[in-house]
Design a protein that fits this description.
The structure holds two protein chains of two kinds. By secondary structure, chain A is mostly beta strands. Chain A contains no helices and ten strands. Chain B has a four-stranded antiparallel beta sheet, with no helix packed on it. In chain B, strands 5-6-8 form a three-stranded antiparallel beta sheet, with no helix packed on it. The chains are: A mainly beta, B mainly beta.
Chain lengths: ~140, ~150
């Protein structure tokens, strides 16, 4: 590592998913992808590191309030080679987030580039309803 | 120790097991998680080898491949680059920040000299794969045994 001060990559170890309740149907390793979430005036933006995933191997579902991201990674081991030294493991990705009511569900946009998923969750127009209070 | 097949393959298993034992012996005090060595730096790398050379893979999501610097000198591979932090507009706020960023450099020494002119690097879906062919002069030579 050249310069510790400039580097802000804390961990290289991928976090394996903890099996809670329902088991996964694929008997493969699965990891919790690292995610940045930020909020702008118009939207909530989610960026997720999922190396090895592209648009065809990504599964995003929104059910009730829960947004679930699943990425399937086809492990393409180099043919004719043997692993001599291993520092990381390859597996699927899975993570869920609970969304607030503020999100306009019909206008969610998802793009994936270079193994990074970007989810754009636009905020819904505030549906303010004034309730008139009548004097009793 | 391992309930399921670790690399999804069984063929490198015995080799892995041997390596693991060797590694454990060498790095008795070095912490390991489920058999994979903890990378001493970013990015984590996997190294695959055969008689013809080596393949080094690294997970580097969201990197501009133009700015990735791969240098090979004799038997040493040096990989450096930068992961740019997000630039948020005024008023934007982070809810969660887990993805790392910054400059990185890692050097890796291979057990053979590399044919530097034929090194190939492919960056796809955030995964970098470098193919390092072994230098012709460095390849093992077969010695025929003559009957006396």
């Amino acid at each position: 590592m050249a310069n510790e001060n400039e580097l802000n990559i804390q961990e290289t170890e991928k976090q394996e998913i903890a099996e809670t309740g329902a088991e996964r149907t694929r008997s493969r390793l699965a990891f919790v992808p690292r995610t940045d979430i930020y909020e702008t005036n118009e939207a909530i933006v989610l960026l997720t590191d999922m190396p090895g995933v592209d648009e065809s191997t990504l599964d995003i579902t929104l059910e009730n309030d829960v947004l679930t991201i699943k990425g399937y990674v086809e492990t393409a081991y180099p043919e004719g080679y043997g692993l001599a030294y291993g520092e990381y493991r390859v597996g699927d990705y899975e993570r869920s987030f609970t969304l607030s009511d503020k999100v306009d569900r019909n206008k969610i946009e998802a793009t994936v580039k270079d193994g990074v998923l970007r989810l754009y969750l636009p905020k819904a127009e505030p549906s303010l309803r004034k309730i008139a209070v009548a004097a009793g | 120790m391992f309930g399921r097949s670790f690399w999804g393959l069984t063929s490198p298993w015995s080799e892995m097991e041997r390596l693991r034992r060797e590694m454990n012996r060498l790095f008795a005090s070095f912490p390991t998680i489920s058999g994979a060595r903890i990378a001493p730096g970013y990015p984590a790398m996997n190294v695959w080898m055969n008689e013809e050379g080596a393949v080094v893979t690294a997970e580097l999501p969201g990197i501009d491949p133009e700015k990735l610097d791969i240098a090979v000198v004799e038997n040493t591979l040096t990989l450096s680059g930068e992961r740019k932090p997000l630039e948020l507009a005024e008023g934007d706020v982070y809810h969660r920040r887990e993805r790392g960023y910054g400059k990185f450099t890692r050097s890796f020494q291979l057990p053979f000299n590399v044919e530097a002119n034929n090194v190939q690097a492919v960056y796809e879906k955030g995964v970098l794969r470098i193919t390092l062919p072994r230098a012709e002069a460095d390849k093992p030579r077969k010695i025929a045994v003559k009957a006396a």
